[in-house]
Amino acid sequence: MAERVLKKVCLLGDGAIGKTSLIRRFVFDQFDDRYIMTFGTKVVKKMVSMKKDGRDLEVTLMIWDILGQRMHDPLHAAYYQGASGALIGFDITRKETFDNMREWVAAFRKASPNSHLLFFANKSDLPNWEVTEEQFNDLSKEFGAPPMLTSAKMGKNVEESFAEIARMMC
Questions:
Q1: Beta bridge partners of 42
Q2: Domain hosting residue 15, numbered range
Q3: How many domains does the chain have?
Q4: At 39, which helix (H) or strand (E)?
Q5: C-alpha distances in angstroms, 154 versus 53, 115, 125, 159?
Q6: Is the full-model pTM beyond 0.85?
């Protein structure tokens, strides 16, 4: 019989980087390229089965899709409470979203200092990258967060990203 575990994970990053699209791809295996701004937060759940340290686990991920506007930082801190981890990302075709990663990490760490981090570079299927893999890997090493090149549109590394953060949190 598998051990059941419940974990809260936040998806963070600037607006329009594809957070909602990643969740929709992971939970429903759907993609819609129409941009719909997230207001406040949305919570969805999905169960992931895995083996960890010889144990069978059924991990229910409570996935918090948090609005990407930094002007709401005081509100964000309340959303981060109780999180075991966060996927923090950027749009690889918009360097300013990469440049804001440290601020997202700092805000999350302030509210949830011992949580696990995984970084994602979304929209990696597009050709006009403004951030190199080397820059992304350097930032990931700085924070000890595994890097994932993702594409919600193509489904690239979406399942793998959520599975990895689930393993880290257990």
A1: 65
A2: 3-169
A3: 1
A4: none
A5: 32, 29, 7, 12
A6: yes
CB-CB contact of 96 with 56 (8 Å): no
Which strands make up the sheet holding 3-12, listed edge to edge? 41-52, 55-66, 3-12, 85-91, 116-122, 147-149
- Here the tokens at position 122 are 């979304």
List for the chain the helix, strand, coil content (%; round to 5).
35, 30, 35
Token digits of residue 138: 């350097």
Q: Report yes or no: 135 and 142 within 8 Å, Cβ to Cβ.
A: no
The per-residue pLDDT for range 137-164, each reduced to its tens digit, is: 999 999 999 999 999 999 999 999 999 9
CATH number where 120 lies: 3.40.50.300
Tens of pLDDT, residues 94-133: 999 999 999 999 999 999 999 999 999 999 999 999 999 9
Q: Helix (H, G, I), strand (E, B), or coil: what is residue 148?
A: strand
